[in-house]
Every structure is written in C-alpha cells, then in structure tokens.
C-alpha cells in the first residue's frame, strides 16, 4: 500500500491574496454574480466528492482521482472555474461576493490538498514507469514536445486504470510513461496557476531526489572527501575508479538527462520552477560525481603506472563534457559545470607532472649489470611498452599537452640534438613529447653500451642494434607509427643497420683481415698462405666461441646479420681456400693447417645469436680443443 503525502494545511490559514499570487486567467466573457455562484456550486460538488477531509478516516484506501481520466479532467476544469470565480468575487467587492470568496478559498484549499495527494501518489506509484532510463530513451531535451503529453487530455479520453497508478491497465511501458507524465504536468499546471507552486515543488523534489540518490547508490557512486581518499591504499582507490568509470556515463546520459527531461515536461509552464526542481534534485549528486576525479588527481605520489587511470578519468569527463554542459546549462547548476571543468584541469596537470617524473626516472635509472649477451635491456621494454600505452590515449594527451612547452633542459649531449630527430616531421605536441621520451631512452642506452666495451666493443654495438631495433619494432606495430611518422621509422631503421655494420666490423675484422685481398695476378708463397690459414682459423674460432653466447632476439634482425656476415666471409674464404688448400695435406699427429671447408662456415654462423653459449651439434668438444673443429667440417686431403 502506497504511503500518502499529507501537507499540513488548515482551512483558516491566512493568505496574502485570494489566489496566493496566482496569475488571473485571461477573461473570456463577463460573468454575472449569479453565473459565478452557479459555477461555484458546480465546482463545490465535484471538489467535495473527492475531498481528502471527507475521507480522512480511511485516507490510505482512497482510490485515485486519476483512475478515471474523464473524472480527472472534470476536476481540473472545476479548479480552473473556481479560479475564475475567485477573481470575479475579488473584483466585485460586494458583501455577498466577500462571503462567496471565503467559500471559494476553502474549496480551493481542499482541491489543492487533493491534487497534492494525487501528485505524490502518481510520482510514488510510477517509479518504474518514470525511471530516468525510460524518460531519457523516450525523448531528448530538444525533441520532448509538451504537446505530446497534453494530447492525453483530449475529449475522447476515457481511460481507466487499476491500483491507483495513472496508467492504462495492461498498456505498454511507453504509454504508461506518457500517461504518467501527462497527469503530473496537468496537476502541476493547476497547482502553479492556483498559487500552490511551493507545495507542488516540495513533493516533486522529495520523491525524485530519493530516486536519484538510490540510483547513484546502486551505481556505486560514493561521497568521499579528499582526506578520506588520501587514507586509502591505491588498490582500493583503483577499484573505486573502475566503479566510477562504469557509473559516470549512465549517470549523465541516463539519470541526469532523464531528470532534466522530466522536469522540463512536468513544469513546462514555468521554466524557473523546472530549473529550481532540477537543481535541488541533481546538483549535489552531480558535484559529488564529478568531484571524485579531482580528488584522485590529488592522490599522494602517483607513480607512472597510475597515469593511465588518470587518463581514463580525463577521457570520460572530456567525452561527457558537452552533454554535461547541456544538461546543467542554467546558472542554478553552474557548480556542476565548474566541477567537471576543474576536474579536467586538475587531471591534466597531474598527467603532465607524472610524464615529467617518468622522464626523470628514465634518466636516473642506474642499473650497472649488463644484459647477458647484449640483448634487449629491461628498461627498453618497460619504456617502450609504457609509451605504446600512452599512444592509446592520443586524444586526451593531445589536449593535455597542447599548451605545454617541452622542457629540454637536460644533461643530454649536444650531438643528440643535431642527429636526425622527429621534430621536423611531427607537428603535434604529443608526437614531439613521445619522440622526446624515446630519445631520452636511446641516450640512456648509449650510456649503458659503455658497460660492454670492457668485454668487447662489438658486443656494445650489438646491444645498441638489438635495443634500437626493439624500439623501432614497437613503433611500427602500434599507434606510435601514426604519431611519429614513416620518416622517423626510416631514420631509426637506418641507425639499426649502422649499429649492425659496426658490430660486423669490430667483431669480425680480425677474421676478414687474415685473408689476402683477391688478386688473380698475385701469388702468395706457401709459408705466407700457411700463416693466412692459421690466422683465419684462430680468428674465426675465437669469434665463434665468444659470440655463441651473444643474442639477437629478433629473428628478422638475426637472419639479416647472419646473411650479411656470410656474404662477406664465405666468398673471400672460398676463393682463398680453392687456390691454396692443395699445398697442405694432412700429417699424422700434426694439427692441420686447413681446418674448415667453405660450406662449414655457414653452419657455424647459423649457431650464433641464440645466447646459449653452446654450438649445438659442435657441443663442448669444439671449445675444448682446436683440433676438434675438424670434426664438423669435411676432411681436407
């Protein structure tokens, strides 16, 4: 059974004017006192029939006036006629008119009590039909025509409903929604024109605000202060952020929009009242909703990993801002617009600060242990994965960084600024910022490459090739490609090839220099040819043993380096081998001069860059004795 709202009016309540500041209806004709008295009698019969006081002993069991649309229409017409009569009696000023005026005032109070009761009951019993989702999906602020709802009171209407709900019995949800909105609008129009707008607004705010409060509670929106959030662990804050992200779109696009539309329809005759009701219902909750992101932005020490939650919040507010400004367009709810904008500004400031801290963290990274085999450094993986994630937020970050000048006051060598950079081809602030972060990483990697020079300069270049290749691969396979451009990729691919060439030169120069330059006209003495073979054997075997523990993780780059080495090494050795191997036969008990056939070189090279430190089928025997190298090649006679 529905709870019924009762307003404590007394029949003797003083009024500042006969119609409590109501506006007189436009006069349609001149009425005589007798005609007014007759109209008053008719109005009295209808109003008394539905008087709340007449049935006060069993008030909760009263059937609704609006179960019969024709009866409701007659009742509202009688209130309108009562208003006309009251204005007539005031203007007439005679003794009899004064007595009739008192009578009319008492009837008006009874009528308003009844309409208050009906207004409350329709709002309460139609919570399901008038839920914000139904209202917002039925129409929009721009398209919600008041006449759509006024049509429900046409002359042909004769609608009966059950259970006190102002709906058709068995009608579809949309029709139930329209009937309920039409009934509420009709009652609000009558009460406002009769000077009872405050009573009408009080009931409306009471019921609708409770619905909004309940909806936000079920959506997980909490009212938390900054101090409360600061005391929480980040894991708890993160859960609350996820809940907020799930709630904010529904809140704006459905909940607040639905309430805005409903207010506009019900109080269509008074935009001022509509704004007042909506502000009372939605303002506090909306400020709470949009205040949460600002509190998160002020959270104690946000690490770089937490930036993406900040950007999520920024994304959602930015996307919803146009609708928010439309729904909360009036001065009475300007606090909501201000809070949404303040949260955006604060989130942007926090994002810029975290990016600066991320850049500083790259520069301060101080690991001293070289990566085994010259592979991809963990810092490279971390930074590039982070930058790739940043590119997924290109829309928000472009806005955030648009007016933010890049601070290049850093200890980077001057040479890095004269080398090819993306600044010539990238126009957006985001592109420049991301390219700058990658440049800071590459500079840091150059410093880490120095750690390999005590081991082998060739390994330092291989380390640089591996890491820059990883960087380029991440750019090429992500949204960074669009931000940095093809020119950036081509420029850095060229650097990868340069590093690989430097590795070949430094790692295999001893091997290559052991072979004489091919010259068909020149003949090498046997002793010199012997020394060439021995130098080649020594250099090749040393390079092989050392580099089997080196690594090139990327298959494409690994194959490219192997093919490049084979093209340089195998033809030169084959030419020398074919011309001079016949000079040296196999002597028992003596280490052979020619230990490798040309075809074997490719087999040995194929073992490189897997980082195993093991030569596969050659196994440990290869490393134990130089003579064991012959076991892998064909026997040279």
List keywords for this structure.
0% strand, 637 residues, disordered N terminus, rod-shaped, mainly alpha, 64% helix, disordered C terminus
Write structural notes for this entry.
By secondary structure, the protein is an all-alpha fold. About 65% of the residues lie in helices and about 0% in strands. It contains 22 helices and no strands. It has helices at about 35-50, 70-90, 95-125, 130-140, 145-150, 175-195, 195-220, 225-230, 235-265, 270-295, 305-325, 335-365, 380-390, 395-400, 415-420, 430-450, 455-475, 480-515, 525-545, 555-580, 600-605, 620-625. Helix 3 (about 95-125) packs antiparallel against helix 6, helix 3 runs parallel beside helix 7 and helix 16 (about 430-450) runs antiparallel to helix 17. The longest helix has about 35 residues, at about 480-515. The chain is rod-shaped, with a radius of gyration of 43 Å. Residues about 1-20, about 25-30, about 140-150, about 155-175, about 410-425 and about 615-635 have low confidence and may be disordered.
Q: Note the run of SSEs as H and E.
A: HHHHHHHHHHHHHHHHHHHHHH
The helix-and-strand class reads mainly alpha
Low-confidence stretches: 1-19, 25-31, 141-149, 154-173, 410-427, 615-637
Report strand %: under 5%
* Mean pLDDT metric: 80
| Fraction of helical residues | 55-70%
């Amino acid at each position: 059974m529905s709870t019924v709202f009762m307003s404590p009016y007394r029949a003797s309540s003083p009024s500042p004017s006969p119609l409590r500041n109501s506006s007189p209806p436009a006069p349609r004709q001149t009425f005589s006192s007798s005609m007014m008295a007759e109209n008053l009698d008719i109005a009295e019969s209808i109003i008394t029939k539905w008087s709340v006081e007449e049935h006060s002993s069993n008030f909760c069991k009263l059937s609704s006036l609006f179960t019969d649309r024709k009866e409701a229409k007659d009742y509202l017409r009688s209130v309108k006629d009562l208003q006309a009569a009251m204005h007539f009696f005031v203007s007439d000023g005679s003794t009899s008119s004064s007595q009739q005026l008192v009578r009319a005032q008492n009837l008006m109070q009874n009528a308003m009590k009844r309409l208050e009761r009906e207004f409350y009951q329709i709002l309460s019993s139609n919570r399901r039909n008038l839920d914000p989702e139904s209202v917002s999906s039925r129409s929009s602020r721009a398209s919600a025509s008041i006449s759509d709802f006024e049509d429900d009171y046409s002359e042909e209407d004769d609608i009966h409903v059950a259970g006190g709900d102002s709906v058709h019995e068995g009608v579809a949800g949309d029709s139930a929604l329209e009937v309920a909105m039409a009934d509420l609008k009709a009652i609000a129009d009558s009460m406002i024109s009769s000077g009872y707008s405050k009573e009408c607004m009080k009931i409306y705010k009471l019921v609708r605000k409770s619905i909004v409060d309940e909806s936000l509670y079920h959506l997980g929106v909490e009212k938390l202060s900054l101090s409360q959030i600061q005391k929480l662990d980040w894991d708890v804050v993160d859960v609350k952020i996820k809940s907020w992200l799930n709630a904010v779109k529904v809140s704006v696009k459905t909940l607040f929009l639905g309430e805005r539309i409903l207010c506009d329809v019900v109080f269509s005759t008074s935009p001022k009242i509509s704004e007042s009701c909506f502000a009372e219902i939605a303002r506090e909750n909306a400020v709470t909703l949009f205040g949460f992101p600002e509190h998160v932005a002020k959270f104690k020490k946000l690490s770089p990993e937490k930036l993406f939650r900040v950007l999520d919040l920024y994304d959602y507010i930015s996307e919803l801002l146009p609708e928010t400004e439309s729904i909360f367009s009036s001065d009475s709810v300007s606090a909501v617009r201000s809070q949404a904008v303040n949260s955006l500004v604060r989130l942007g400031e926090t994002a810029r600060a975290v990016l600066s801290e991320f850049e500083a963290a790259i520069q301060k990274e101080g690991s001293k242990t070289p990566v085994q085999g010259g592979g991809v450094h963990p810092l490279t993986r971390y930074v590039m994965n982070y930058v790739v994630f940043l590119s997924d937020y290109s829309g928000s970050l472009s806005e955030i960084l648009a007016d933010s000048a890049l601070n290049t006051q850093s200890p980077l060598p001057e040479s890095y600024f004269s080398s090819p950079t993306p600044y010539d081809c990238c126009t957006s602030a985001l592109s420049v910022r991301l390219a700058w972060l990658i440049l800071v990483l590459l500079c840091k990697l150059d410093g880490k490459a120095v750690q390999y020079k005590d081991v082998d300069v060739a390994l330092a270049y291989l380390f640089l090739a591996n890491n820059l290749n990883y960087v380029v691969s991440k750019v090429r396979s992500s949204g960074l490609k669009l931000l940095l451009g093809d020119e950036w990729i081509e420029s850095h691919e060229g650097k990868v090839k340069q590093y690989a060439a430097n590795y070949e030169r430094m790692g295999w120069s001893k091997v290559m220099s052991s072979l004489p330059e091919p010259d068909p006209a020149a003949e090498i003495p046997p002793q010199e040819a012997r020394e060439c073979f021995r130098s080649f054997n020594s250099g090749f075997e040393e390079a092989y043993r050392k580099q089997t523990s080196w690594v090139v993780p990327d298959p494409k780059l690994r194959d490219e380096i192997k093919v490049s080495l084979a093209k340089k090494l195998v033809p030169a050795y084959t030419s020398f081998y074919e011309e001079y191997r016949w000079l040296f036969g196999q002597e028992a008990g003596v280490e052979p001069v020619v230990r490798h056939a040309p075809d074997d070189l490719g087999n040995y090279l194929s073992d490189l860059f897997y980082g195993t430190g093991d030569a596969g089928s050659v196994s440990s025997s290869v490393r134990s004795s130089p003579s064991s190298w012959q076991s892998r090649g064909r026997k040279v006679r």
